[in-house]
Specification:
The structure holds two protein chains of two kinds. The two termini of chain A are 46 Å apart. Chain A is mainly α. Chain A is 66% helix and 0% strand.
């Protein structure tokens, strides 16, 4: 390898490198090295993503239960799903949670990002404080929040009682269980905030001065500079937020076990109990594929919709 | 950080500047008069928000230091009296938390090592070596990020079960040596972004001197890539520390549990012993928060590194 200095394809352009720069002296060995070094990733993708995906699709067409022989039943699982009230319940619960938690987290994250992007004394301390909850391990924050929501001695009811307001059953009542979890999710807006913050720092400062020169105030600056430049970041947070909330599991497992009366039967939690409590691997795989399709459709719809409001710097040609 | 100490013009009441002059000055000064008030308002909002964010932590710490009798006393107190320090030794010995900690750290060691090595190697290949299909493969990897983990969950579990790897650390660590397998794509992306910013002349020079890609990776690129490596290490470390579903699926014997899994079972065993529960939670939370404070600079850098240009 060390002596292969023959330049075999001098006209080939180096994709990532500076165009027209000097060619590397690697020749054909380069491709071999390239594949070799990327091999862990390629194998990993094949073994842990593509393979399981195909297997999952096949499982979903069987009635396989652990310990039994799988029978091919075609779309039987999917047909069964249509008549499964718990499937619909879990879908509804998850959608409800997504529709409430994502906009709220994005809104709070965005507003706080705007605030902590101002130059205040101790700026990094503010940012840290708002980011802290995000660092708390999911299980630990679940344990903490069960305690906060405790109807008798929890933080919320203690505060409500002390100011003479009516208390709530929080996680223990069907109507307030999901809103409670949404409050808890909003506490962790730090991830969205940090990404917004990174986006805000990428907004070209001279544009603000241009608006100011034209006599524009804070609102004009926000409307004509901040907002358009932030739409790609908002979109990014929106998509990852939706994909994330569709996959909520820990809260249901640790905090509510899907209750009360299935009010917090999140989709993945239902899938988990089907697979690992009832051992119905075939049915659970079908549930997984339906989730996959839902997430795909939602993502595509979001991307389509994005064209009308997401602004890309280089996107004038679109 | 020029803005930190500029609450407004030095002497806002002095009407020296004409309108024209003011127009020419920087916008920051021009709106200075209004800023004093607005800033105070904003500051108040920030402070109020910060308190709201912090209160759950205060509640946690306060409860961790209370005896049950005090926790359930009425009216509720904010300050423990006396401080029930014994909650900590009691909680930590009720279940083998030292063992859980050790298990977690063993998994951390393997996952962090595997992730850094294989993710940086493949990122090096994607960023600095040319081969046919390179961009297609990278695109495929990236698209995997959108995939709900549930789709691969069951077959992966079945695979490890067939291989007899249940209740070992293998399912939790081995995927890290395949570039993080699935979730690791983000790390590849981070490394690749960073590698793309290093001048190619460095590689050229090394190749002319007869180096091979491994040498370039190991001797030139990686030593320059310390910032991004630190970021990947931190994110991976936190990911393992917080992981719950993985250990829940694969570990069954109590002696193999991780901290997160141990805390969850602790929660279901000691449901009503809030003092102990809070003490245990605090112990699981604290190391991550300390780590964050120590390495804060890199966190911020990490966010900047991701670029996030949409």
């Amino acid at each position: 390898m060390t002596t292969t200095t023959v330049d075999r394809a001098p006209t080939r352009k180096a994709p990532p490198g500076p165009p027209g720069g000097p060619r590397r002296r690697l020749g054909r060995g380069e491709a071999r090295w390239g594949v070799l070094l990327a091999l862990p990733a390629i194998l990993g993708f094949a073994i842990f993503t593509i393979g399981p995906m195909v297997a999952s699709l096949i499982f979903s067409l069987t009635d396989w239960q652990i310990g039994g022989d799988p029978q091919f039943i075609g779309f039987g699982n999917y047909v069964e799903m249509a008549d499964d009230p718990l499937f619909w319940k879990s879908l509804g619960v998850t959608t409800y949670y997504t529709l409430a938690a994502v906009p709220l987290t994005l809104f709070v994250g965005f507003v706080v990002a705007l605030l902590v992007n101002q130059s205040f004394r101790g700026q990094s301390l503010w940012r840290t404080v708002y980011y802290l909850p995000t660092l708390v391990p999911a299980v630990a924050s679940a344990v903490l929040w069960i305690w906060i929501f405790n109807p008798d001695f929890g933080l919320f009811n203690t505060i409500l009682r002390s100011v003479g307001l009516p208390t709530s059953n929080w996680l223990y009542s069907e109507s307030t269980a999901i809103p409670s979890l949404v409050i808890m999710a909003t506490w962790g807006f730090g991830n969205a905030m940090v990404i917004f913050l990174a986006g805000l720092q990428g907004v070209p400062g001279q544009l603000y001065e241009a608006v100011a020169l034209d006599g524009g105030g804070a609102w004009a600056k926000f409307r004509h500079v901040t907002w358009p430049f932030m739409t790609p970041v908002i979109f990014y947070n929106l998509v990852t937020g939706v994909i994330g909330t569709f996959q909520v599991f820990n809260q249901a497992y640790v905090m509510t076990e899907g209750g009360p009366n299935n009010a917090t039967l999140f989709y993945i939690y239902y899938l988990y109990t089907k697979a690992f409590t009832d051992s119905e691997m075939g049915y659970a795989s079908a549930l997984a594929w339906v989730l996959f399709l839902i997430v795909m459709v939602v993502t595509v719809v979001l991307f389509r919709n994005a064209r009308s409001w997401v602004f890309y710097e280089m996107g004038d040609a679109r | 950080m020029t803005g930190v100490l500029t609450p407004g013009p030095k002497n806002p009441s002095a009407p020296t500047a004409t309108a024209v002059q003011r127009r020419g000055r920087s916008p920051r000064t021009r709106v200075g008069e209004a800023r004093g008030l607005t800033r105070a308002g904003l500051w108040l909002v920030l402070a109020f928000g910060a308190i709201v964010m912090i209160v759950p932590f205060v509640w946690l710490i306060r409860s961790a230091l209370m005896t049950d009798a005090q926790i359930f006393s009425s009216p509720p107190a904010w300050i423990p009296d006396p401080f029930a320090w014994e909650n900590f030794p009691q909680a930590l010995t009720a279940q083998p938390f030292a063992r859980y900690f050790l298990n977690t750290m063993i998994i951390e060691l393997f996952v962090v090592t595997g992730t850094v090595i294989t993710c940086s190697l493949s990122a090096f290949s994607f960023a600095r070596l040319r081969w046919r299909g390179r961009n297609v493969v990278f695109g495929l990897l990236l698209s995997g990020v959108m995939l709900p983990y549930a789709v691969t969950l069951i077959p992966t579990f079945v695979m490890w079960s067939e291989l007899g790897a249940l209740d070992t650390f293998i399912p939790l660590t081995v995927p890290a040596f395949f570039a993080g397998a699935g979730g690791g794509v983000f790390n590849i992306f981070l490394f690749r972004q960073f590698f793309l910013s290093i001048p190619y002349e460095l590689d050229e020079a090394a190749y002319i001197d007869g180096a091979n890609p491994w040498t370039v990776y190991w001797r030139i690129i990686m030593p320059l890539a310390k910032p991004v490596t630190v970021v990947v290490v931190i994110f991976t470390f936190i990911g393992v520390w917080n992981d719950f579903l993985g250990p829940l699926l694969y570990l069954t014997d109590d002696s193999n549990f991780t901290l997160a899994l141990g805390l969850a079972t602790f929660q279901s065993t000691y449901t009503a012993q809030w003092g102990l529960l809070m003490a245990a939670s605090l112990v699981v939370i604290l190391p991550i928060i300390v780590l964050f404070f120590v390495l804060q600079r890199y966190f911020v850098e990490g966010v900047t590194l991701t670029g996030l240009k949409g």
